[in-house]
Each structure stands twice: as C-alpha cells, then as structure tokens.
Write a structure and sequence with these properties.
Strand order of the largest sheet of chain A: 1-3-2
Radius of gyration of chain A: 19 Å
Strand content of chain A: under 5%
Number of strands of chain A: 3
Keywords (chains A, B): DNA-binding, Transcription, Transcription regulation
Largest interface: A-B, 32 and 34 residues
CATH architecture of the largest domain in chain A: Up-down Bundle
Domain HTH gntR-type (chains A, B): 12-79
Structural class of chain A: mainly alpha
Distance between the termini of chain A: 43 Å
Largest sheet of chain A: 3 strands, antiparallel
CATH topology of the largest domain in chain A: Four Helix Bundle (Hemerythrin (Met), subunit A)
Order of helices and strands of chain A: HHEHHEEHHHHHH
Oligomer: homodimer
Number of domains of chain A: 2
Protein name (chains A, B): FCD domain-containing protein
CATH class of the largest domain in chain A: Mainly Alpha
Shape of chain A: elongated
CATH superfamily of the largest domain in chain A: GntR ligand-binding domain-like
InterPro entries (chains A, B): GntR_C, TF_FadR/GntR_C, Tscrpt_reg_HTH_GntR, WH-like_DNA-bd_sf, WH_DNA-bd_sf
Helix content of chain A: over 70%
Number of helices of chain A: 10
Organism (chains A, B): Ancylobacter oerskovii
Chain lengths: 222, 222
Amino acid sequence: MPTPEIELLKSRSLPMLIEEEIQRVILSGQYAPGDRINEKELTLRFGTSRGPIREALRSLESSGLIEQIPNRGVFVRKLTPEQAAQIYDVRAFLFALAGRLLAMRASEQEIATLRGFVAAMDEAIAADDTDRYLRENFALHEFIVAHAANPVLAGQYLSLIKQLQLYRARNLALVDSMQVSNREHHEMVEAIAARDPDRAQAAHMAHVMSAKRRLAANAGLS
Amino acid sequence: MPTPEIELLKSRSLPMLIEEEIQRVILSGQYAPGDRINEKELTLRFGTSRGPIREALRSLESSGLIEQIPNRGVFVRKLTPEQAAQIYDVRAFLFALAGRLLAMRASEQEIATLRGFVAAMDEAIAADDTDRYLRENFALHEFIVAHAANPVLAGQYLSLIKQLQLYRARNLALVDSMQVSNREHHEMVEAIAARDPDRAQAAHMAHVMSAKRRLAANAGLS
DNA sequence: AATTGAAGATTGTCCTACAATTTTCAATTT
DNA sequence: AAATTGAAAATTGTAGGACAATCTTCAATT
C-alpha cells in the first residue's frame, strides 16, 4: 500500500523523499551496517516503481551511507574503527574552520544563543540527564556549523556526521564524559565571544580530537 | 576469454561510466555552467536508456557539479565568486590536514618524489612553460592528498577541486604567479621532509589561502 | 561433510507509455 | 513595437513489463 505522506508532499521530488526516508531508517539503526537493501522491498514499502528507488540509492551512495556492489546490490555501509578515526580527523579540521569563521562574524545574539546551549548542558549534567545533554550538544554543534556562513563547509560536515552515526549506532553510545566535554564547549564559546579566530579554531579542533580520543579509548575497551 | 571491456563492466556499472563521462564533458567546458543537460540528448550520445542516465545525474548532483530543479531538469552548476571563496576556505583546511598527515608518515621515497615535483616546476618556470607547470602543480597536490592515507579527506578534497574547476574554467586561468606559488611548494615539501606536522600544516594552509587571494585579486580586475 | 547444480531471486537495463509541467513560438492585443 | 496570450511541442517524472546476466539458495549427490 502506498504511503499517503509520499503523495502529499509533492514539493520535493519523489527520489528525494525516498532518499530521506531510507536515510532515516538507516540512521535509526533499523537497517544495520552490512545489511543488504532490497529494491523490490522498497518499491513495496513506498508504493513506487524501481526507477525512483534506484535514483535515491545512487544519491545515498554518494553521501557515503550505502555501498553499491555491481550485480549484488546495495548494502548499508560498515565503518571500521580506522575509518571512523579518519572521519574524526577531517571533522576536526572542518569544525575548526567553522569555529574560526563564527568567531569572525558572530552577532551578540548568536553568542547569547551559544552560551545558552552551554548553560543548558551544565544543567543537564547537574540533573544527570544524558538525553538532554546529547540533544543540546547536537544543537550546539549544528548551530556553530550552520552559522559559520559557509554552505560548502556545512554540507561536508553534515555528511561526516551522518557517516559517524553509522559507526556509533552500533558501537554503543559515547560515555563521553559530559563534564570534560562541556568544559571544552565553554572554551569554544568564549573564544567566539572574544572574537578570537585563532583561539576559536584551536578550541574547536581540540574538542573534536578530544572526542576522537574518547571514542578510541572506548573502542579499545570493548 | 575475459576481455578488458568485460572486466571494466564488472567493476564499474554503466551509470558510473556515464557519470564519469558527463563529468569529463562538464569539466572540459563543453557544457558551460548554467547549461541545461537534456536527458534525451544523453541517451543518444551514450546509446542507453534514460534509467542509467538519470542515475548518473543523481550521483553527479551529490558531487556538486550539477543542480536539479524539479520538472525543469538538471543544469551545470554555476559558482559565484563568493561560493568559490567558500570552497577555497574549506579546501585550505583539508589541505592543511593532508600536509600534517603526510608530514607524520612520509617515506624517504615520497619525499624524494615531492622534491621532484618542485624541481620540475622550477624547470618549467625557467623555461616559461606554463602548461608543464600546471601539470606538475596538479600532480603535486594530487600526490600529497593521495598519500595522506585518509580516503575521506581525499574524497572531499577531490570534490572541492572539481567544483572549483567549474569556476576556473570560465573565469580564465590563474596567472597564478608561478614563482610565488612554487616558493610556497618548496616550504610545504621541506616541512614534510623535516617531519614537522605543525609547520607542514601551516605551509599547506597558507598555500591555498594565498591562491585564494590571487584568484580574488584576478576576479576583482576582470 | 563437502560439492554440485538446478531453481529461484535480484540486479541491470531497455522499452513503451502517459500525466504533469515547462518551453516555444506564433497569433493577438495593447 | 512591445507585451500578452494560448496552443502545440518538448521534457521531466514515474509506472510497469520484459528479459539477460548474475547471484543466492538449497536440495540432491558424492
């Protein structure tokens, strides 16, 4: 049976909607890394023909969430710890650029918002509310990248984040020490508030590299 | 008897081949930025049906070379000077990471190759051979990124380079002062040879930012 | 238990078809 | 002449059937 939602939202093209939905399913963990994705199953799920499905899969392949093997089909991409580490390195540099750019152009309003995120995370830590912490944490990072005013940067950063979710979804949640992490956030935000691009760049890079180390340590233990 | 063509089709699907060919045509300037790409024309050119063509176009869209507008078709992407500048910023940071990584792991062999490129460019400058300079210049950059041992980085960097070609193809070739540029190359390579990651990182970033300034200056004059 | 081989499933591609939308271009009006 | 309109033509977006090539499955055989 065709999903009614698909019918309603005609503003975006069908392959785009399908792409988003498949992506959502993958990132939510319903399809696990290594799983094969069956075209016919998708046609049944979405009530479309194979054309739009295949187009959506092509697009997802470029975004690094799936892998296509000729004559065998597409599979949810599987990341090795090494690949995850490589992504972290790139992410660190992109995030550093975001911090630098934002430090050069942040408005008072934006700085206030940034401080709000950090304060919210402090509250979450006090309340031992991990869920809230993760939400605010994500929002802060998102905000920084989005307000750096460089869509190319934002696009590449987002792509890395999605790929990392592929890794983290399975390898257990980061018991990413919230205190340490938010101390780093504090430094990032204050560097931006001080309009100090070099300091902001360094703080943002250090934050991601620190997260990388924590993840590597976790992976080592498991 | 497995002919080479058969082997080729085994590893690369038809949409992939079509994608590469369309990309080649775009980057060569046969399709200019803003041009509409007609599906039927492509089916005639490649002798295939619309399916593989559409898949290839989807993939090219993710790589940023074309733009899809619902019900209107795909167009070769057009970059504004601002977008080009944004790409340069991201590229600078990615290239800086490449320089850092290579400084940490370059073999004697690799260092010798790097020095070879720089020497070749010095020769090209002496002979006023711009074509050769550009070839060697491209090869040096390619080599550095490829040998940084981070495929994620290489992929994103390559994607940016392609997008920049979109811009430069029209906005005339960089009369990128070869002397200045190669002096920077020299510093990059010697920083790598000295196994000094910080120095290499800085040199690589400075080189791209310097190229960005030269391009902006050119754009301002035209 | 390992191997083999036939049946079934899946991918990759082509083809035709058609509704929706956009583009073209000539006729008409201002 | 310039702008507007509107019908014809072209193009996109999608469906669905078809079929060869290839892969997967699984039961029969060694």
